[in-house]
TrEMBL record:
GO terms for molecular function: aromatic-L-amino-acid decarboxylase activity; pyridoxal phosphate binding. It holds the Pfam family Pyridoxal_deC. It comes from the Bacteria. Keywords: Decarboxylase, Lyase, Pyridoxal phosphate. Coiled coil: none annotated. This is Glutamate decarboxylase. Its cofactor is pyridoxal 5'-phosphate. The modification N6-(pyridoxal phosphate)lysine is found at residue 294. InterPro entries: Aromatic_deC (IPR010977), PyrdxlP-dep_de-COase (IPR002129), PyrdxlP-dep_Trfase (IPR015424), PyrdxlP-dep_Trfase_major (IPR015421), PyrdxlP-dep_Trfase_small (IPR015422), Pyridoxal-P_BS (IPR021115). One of its GO terms (biological process) is carboxylic acid metabolic process. Belongs to the group II decarboxylase family.
Amino acid sequence: MTPPDRMHAISPETRAVVDDVLEYARRRALYEDIPLDKPLRPSDLARLAPRTVTPEGIGARRAIALFENVLAPACISTDHPGYLSFIPSAPSKAALAFDVVVSASAVYAGSWMEGAGAVFAENEVLHWLAREFGLPEGAGGVFVQGGTIGNLSALVTARDAARRRLRAADRPMPARWLVVCSAEAHSSIASAAAVMDVDVLPVPVDDAGRLHGDAVARALDEHGDAVFAVVATGGTTNFGIVDDIASIADVTAARGVWLHVDGAYGLAAMLVPEARGAFAGVEHADSVIVDPHKWLFAPFDACALIYRNPSLALAAHTQKAEYLDTLTDTPDWNPSDLGIQLTRRARGLPLWFSLATHGTEHYRAAIAYGIDLAARIADDIRARDEVSLVRDPQLSVVVFRRHGWTMADYKAWSDRLLDDQRAFVVPSSHAGEPVLRFAIISPLTTYELLVDVLDSLR
Ligand SMILES: *Cc1c(COP(=O)(O)O)cnc(C)c1O
């Protein structure tokens, strides 16, 4: 019996499909002027791209044309230099091209047995990051989908470790587990707590928005064994604020409580020598995360999750099943056992390839560029009458207000900016006040572009 192999056979038709797709990928990867683009309504898309999933198929040519001409332009390009909302993405060309190779290679990167070469290369990157963060030899981890899964995986490990510690000491389990973080911590911490059915204890921050050890100490003294982890933020998403990690680490170390550093956005700045000082104390963390798809110039989606002592993660996360025994009963390094996942893409490889290609110094310079640009445009904002800074930028996020504007004014301005395809800057709010925010990641974002956006606020 011959298999119905039209989808897999190497025929002239298959070659044409692969060529067409790769040719489009190549075109998109090398766009000189990345279009900003914007979303369409469902009804518009239904009209422009009617029924594409059919019994006989519409053919590769038509499907690619539809994607290129209708669907892709209905997605905002997060790598556009004027994309300044949320956290932009700015994958290096090497990284995004290599992402295609990862797909073409059909690597299963959950276990060493199947993905040794890929896992080895990913570990090269993780160990380099661990050294940059000051973590000891023996630290290691895994690339998971994003910061949300990274934080959840780390906190699950932390609670598991706390349970084991209490059990070993013959102390009672708390009625409710608590995770301590600052009121400015990312929403994914509350989300992780909800998934884990634990409570979050937000601790007050100082006037600059930073969490300090003394406030954490008070929380720990009050709640004792119930606290299984303290989360310090290495660069808040909204403002780029880095907590006083060193003083927090003193407190967690003295009480034997797990310290997790959420550096999804900001920890990349530790690669810049002048910015390193702000992160003092990270070297004491039990776990850290940083998202390569944010400020390490990798494509979506990847979070580097690193543990000081990976064996604690193995104990918490290894999935047990008879069909997996050949994988889990070995001393091999199996990335799936360190986080919440089983099957996994070798999602660290695009970063590995780009780092191998360009070297680490280029990364330091590209991150420093964003920090410098944020400082420069902040000076500009200080010098203008109609706008003012909400806070001095610490990393590459600049938050400011336009005097006299309501949220409706901000929204109308933001819509116009996108309609004109100049930039994507959505209003945000801080302490009830509507504000604007530039998040600068891309080395292609220029001072002139930002000045142009500021000029449009006059
Ligand atoms: C973006 C971000 C997250 C969530 O990361 P995802 O990759 O979007 O899941 C968590 N913490 C901080 C500080 C972030 O900036």
